[in-house]
């Protein structure tokens, strides 16, 4: 849950320029987490916190993927190419809400404190999932 290069204080959460910040979500504790065209991040109450529903309304999931709004890496070393990093750890993973009984786990859930840190990083951050190979 450490921040490295992210904003703090009054500037926290004010970043609105797309991909000018990065939230790294560590999901390595969940080896069944899988890549997907569109992965979502939820708070413990089930509210979608990423991608910001208002910011991506009407944007196709293919464009989200091609636009590099989220990506997956399998090593710490791969994080060096991303700007303005905030590092967080998911509390659990779950299937996509459109397929709640699926064994394919693609979405991350954050506890309340971690969700607050996620929100403070900015509205338009890229999400990088740090997962097991």
What quaternary form is this? single chain
| Strands in their spatial order, largest beta sheet | 1-6-2-9-5
- Cα-atom radius of gyration: 14 Å
Mean pLDDT comes to: 82
Low-confidence stretches: 1-12
Summarize the amount of helix as a percent range.
10-25%
The DSSP helix count reads 3
Shape: globular
Number of structural domains: 1
**Secondary structure tally: strands:** 9
What composes the largest sheet? 5 strands, mixed
Our measurement of the CA-to-CA distance between the termini, rounded to an integer number of angstroms, reads: 21 Å
Description:
This protein is an alpha/beta fold. It has one domain. It is built from three helices and nine strands. The protein has a five-stranded mixed β-sheet with strand order 1-6-2-9-5, with helices on one face. It has a four-stranded mixed β-sheet with strand order 4-3-8-7. A hairpin with a 4-residue loop joins β3 and β4. It is globular, with a radius of gyration of 14 Å. The chain starts with a strand and ends with a strand. The model is unreliable at 1-12 (pLDDT under 50).
Ordered list of secondary-structure elements with their pairings:
Layout: E1 3-4, E2 22-26, E3 41-43, E4 48-50, H1 53-56, H2 61-66, E5 70-73, E6 85-89, E7 92-95, E8 105-110, H3 112-121, E9 126-130
Parallel strand pairs: 2-6, 2-9, 3-8, 5-9
Antiparallel strand pairs: 1-6, 3-4, 7-8
Summarize the structure.
This protein is α/β, with parallel strands linked by helices and 133 residues long. The protein is 15% helix and 28% strand.
